[in-house]
Amino acid sequence: MCRYLDGVGEMYFIQVLENGEYISVGDVTVKPENPPIAIWVEKYRGVGIGAKVMKTVIGRLSSLGYKKITGSTVYKWNVASQKMHERLGFTRVGENDKDYIYEGSLKMPQENAKAELFERTPIPKAVLRRLIKKAEATV
Fold first, then answer.
1. pLDDT 10s per residue in the chain (139 long)?
2. Which residues does residue 134 pair with via DSSP β-bridges, in sequence order?
3. pTM for this one?
4. Are the C-beta atoms of 92 and 101 separated by less than 8 Å?
5. Rounded Cα distance, 74 and 34, in Å
6. What is the DSSP letter of 77?
């Protein structure tokens, strides 16, 4: 699965600093259509990591020249993810039996402009991984 995700976008592990060591707690694939974010470790769900990661995805896609994210699917039971998408300016554009489908411009509201760190220069993948780690370590 990781090989597939990295082939369709830029796949990263989401890591947090725990007991002086970075541990993987999820993954994200940076791509303009339905960028998946998964937080595997339950204690790290609902604490803002998904929003920080989505802001980073928005910034990275913007730096790559994309204008919007399309087809972002969110399970209907995942109210926290629905609220996060809406807070970041996404609009619900459809639904099916299990999911709501969101779309959003890569221009974030000013108060959510933390992803600007990608707008200055392209950042190598290894550094992007490190930046995600640092962002999550502060949660």
1. 666 666 777 888 888 877 877 788 888 888 999 988 888 888 888 888 888 888 888 888 988 889 999 999 999 999 999 999 999 999 999 999 999 999 998 875 443 444 433 333 333 333 345 445 444 444 4
2. none
3. 0.73
4. yes
5. 9
6. T
- 27: β partners: 13, 38
How far apart are the C-alpha atoms of 63 and 32, rounded to whole Å? 12
Ordered strands of the 21-30 beta sheet: 10-18, 21-30, 37-39
The Cα 85–Cα 49 span in angstroms is: 13
At 98, list the tokens.
């299990």
Residue 75, CA distances (Å) to 16, 93, 110 in order: 25, 14, 27
- 52 close to 136: Cβ distance less than 8 angstroms: yes
**Residue that the structure tokens 């600093």 belong to:** 17
CA 8 – CA 34 distance, rounded (Å): 11
